[in-house]
From TrEMBL:
Ranges in coiled-coil conformation: none
Pfam families with a match to the protein in the record: Trypsin
Family per similarity comment: Belongs to the peptidase S1 family. CLIP subfamily.
Highest classification ranks of the organism: Eukaryota, Metazoa, Ecdysozoa, Arthropoda, Hexapoda
PROSITE patterns found in the cross-reference section: TRYPSIN_DOM
GO BP of this protein: proteolysis
Superkingdom per UniProt: Eukaryota
Name assigned to this protein: Putative trypsin-like serine protease
Domain Peptidase S1: 35-235
Natural source organism: Nyssomyia neivai
Keywords: Disulfide bond, Hydrolase, Protease
Length: 235
């Protein structure tokens, strides 16, 4: 696989989380860098992450529709300010008033895999909790990115580089479905730090959220929902 080989040979493996708040913090999101990070959790098992999300404003957060499939507002929470697995008491659990998936989301093929949740009460902003905006432009190929997020109670991150959808399809078998227009493809460039599963990580260009991991289609290749593609629907 030429594309994967070139990406890995040109990459630098990162052994240290670039978003750590401090060396004294265990598995942290930097509170000043990523205050828009949130998670969906089950009301019965509050320490288990269902899906990662990003805060849009004081009432809404965007996430994957597959994480909302079959969920109810009575058993789902939005958790904000969960930046440190050693200090969960800093976080805030917020009940929901609405769960909204894209009207043409397909849970089998994962097309249009985007959704939003509305909180019952307003999200209170501070230095650890802030909203973010959805980018209006798409990511081209060959752009360095980072994927970050929580899986269960475990914080995960890895580096990746974008590639075009056409090149991505040529590199993978894409069993069951091709690349979708609303997706962006990345190749992992720090394989020693990567999980062998999909954990709905947040795709970052620098510190700007541009997507959410939706499928792992090959050993080093993932697809992500492109926020820019769904911007009009989200807003």
């Amino acid at each position: 696989l030429i594309l994967i080989s070139e990406a890995l040979s040109n990459s630098v493996t990162v052994n240290q989380n670039p978003f750590r708040a401090s060396e004294n913090c265990n598995l942290c999101f930097c509170t000043t860098s990523l205050p828009f990070v949130a998670m969906l959790r089950d009301t019965g098992t509050r320490r288990t992450t269902l899906c990662n999300a990003i805060i849009l404003n004081d009432r809404y957060a965007v996430t994957l529709a597959k994480c909302l499939y079959g969920r109810r507002i009575t058993n789902t929470l939005l958790t904000v300010a969960y930046h440190d697995s050693d200090q969960p008491n800093y976080s805030t659990d917020i009940f929901l008033s609405a769960i909204i998936s894209h009207p043409t989301f397909n849970p089998t093929t994962l097309t249009n895999n985007i959704g939003v949740v509305r909180t019952r009460n307003r999200i209170e902003f501070n230095d650890r909790v802030q909203p973010t905006s959805i980018p209006a432009t798409d990511l081209p190929g060959n752009i360095p990115t980072t994927v970050v997020g929580w899986y269960s109670t475990r914080y995960i991150y890895f580096n990746a580089i974008t590639t075009t959808n056409i090149a991505c399809e040529k590199e993978t078998t894409f069993v069951g479905s091709p690349m979708y227009a609303g997706e962006v493809c990345t190749i992992r460039t720090s394989p020693s730090a990567t999980p062998a599963f999909t954990f709905t990580g947040i795709l970052l260009e620098g510190q700007r959220p541009v997507g959410l991991q939706t499928r792992r289609v090959d050993t080093f290749i993932d697809t992500h929902v492109r926020f820019s593609f769904f911007r009009d629907w989200i807003y």
